[in-house]
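User: Predict the complex with 2-phosphoglycolic acid.
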Amino acid sequence: MKKFYIGTNWKMTKTLEEGLLYTRELKKVSEQLDHSKIELFIIPSHPSLIPIKSEIEDSTIKIGAQNMHWEERGAYTGEVSPLMLQEIGMDIIELGHSERRAYFNETDKAINKKVHAALNANMKPLICIGEKLDEKENNISVETLSKQIKLTLKGLNKEHLPHILLAYEPVWAIGENGIPADSAYVSYIHGEIRKILVDLFEETGSQVPILYGGSVNLDNYLSYFEDKNVNGLFIGRAAWDMISFEKILKTCHSLL
Ligand code: PGA
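Assistant: Here is the predicted structure with 2-phosphoglycolic acid placed in the model:
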């Protein structure tokens, strides 16, 4: 049985103090989970990474950063480098979230450089892809995703594939104004993403976990979890509240 991934990106929502309280609660929940079944990860904001990392040192919770530059050093004010994030023990680097693409003009080309940089620094890139509403309405979701995959994974070889994570996050499903995606649609898209990966990387393409994210909540998480094409859940709001996150984690765990 493969591990099921469940993680949360905190976005810009928690101060260090709030993050520490949250992490202490999450640790208690994680102690009740069998980690050969569930890979649990959190992605705090940059200033919280070092203290949160030491808070989870004695647990099996994995930790990642929300963004990173591709260069090791340089005159890039406001950026952090792979070297810096590797030094503080990051497991995962989240790349290409739709908010970074929309508000910070992040392109597939830039994400691709970051993917290579993360892998070179022995950290797992968690690459977010997703189509916009007008792309879905014009029936070009799969074409859009195929382009994003080809460009963000450009130059990778088969050996890299077991070290990456992919998150399918339709832009129209994310956040306060997001419309939760129908699980049949998610299943179909995940199947298409898998085909694209296998087409590009043969057998190793089948090893990449494909997570789903976008308005996952207490009403719909099981519909995604139960689909064999979905290898994990990447959750925002419903995971920031420990009551709902605990329910999601424990229920998924009991069903694995
Ligand atoms: P959401 O966020 O669950 O609050 O929609 C998901 C995400 O942006 O990854």
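The CA atoms of residues 110 and 152 lie 8 Å apart.
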